[in-house]
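Components:
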Amino acid sequence: MFVAALTALSKWLAATSLSSTILTTGWIIPTLQTVHILCVAVLFSSAVLVDLRMLGVLQRDVPLSDVARRFLPAIWPILLVLLVTGGLLIVGEPRRSLVNGTFYLKMALLAVAIVLTSALQWSLASTPGFWDRDTGRRVAGGIAAVASILVWSGILFAGRWIAYTQAG
Amino acid sequence: MLSQSLIAFFEDSALADSIRENDILFPLIESIHVLAISLVIGSILAVDLRLLGLASVGRSVSRVTSGVLPLTWCAFVVAVGSGGLLFISNATKYLANGYFVAKMLLIAAAGINMLVFHALSTRDLPRWENAARPPLRARLAGGLSILLWVAVVACGRWIGFTMKVG
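Structure:
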């Protein structure tokens, strides 16, 4: 029933004039994808640079809270651009994503990444030394950093895999 | 011609053949390529924005670069390696694709831009690297770098729409 509803939604979206404009104007989809990937690049790199500081790999000369303050706030407006470009890509080719399990895996991972990143940003904004208080916190921070890298990487992988798992 | 037989050698190799024929291998390498190039571009952007005086202005240029560029270089090595594997799987088709050729030239231009900036700055970087607003040539190098990498991504995406692989 769920799949039937999503298929119906895809059909309805595909019948809109916006959808056919996106699909039939040759440059629109590659342009949207280019903007989407550029935003992914900025967001992913920002998250990874903060994670690598948490792991003590890079930028050890500055406190984690400083690195987080420089790199994390940019994530949220960029995420908005990603939602808009991603949304338009779905309107253009609704079946490619809406009836594709990989797309929902990507969205589930995105939800996890948003929770992880906002928790990290919030903890450091309220208590700059939050993840340095004791060994337990440092270990927990390291685990969170590895989880963040893996989840964001998973989102990129799933994103590329949507193209290969779409229904015929 | 030597280059043609070299291309044929790689393209006909067992490795290239398995990348072409295997359903999982091509998207897997492609995903790694996207991941690596994302880190290259995102981390270079942090340096470019510092050179433009738009971000991390409280930190000196050399501290920003030493904190970020190790990630850029590691990711660049992975991007070249994964890109090389994708290339040998369909070398002749890639070389015939204008967007692929443009992408390679743009990456070379980004490299030259970086080398020129580095050569011009080695002598006087300590004098201005703490300034929130670096001198014009540093801002030009940062701005040019952003434009070139944006064009690299655009060409990369356009390859997928103008060339049928497999």
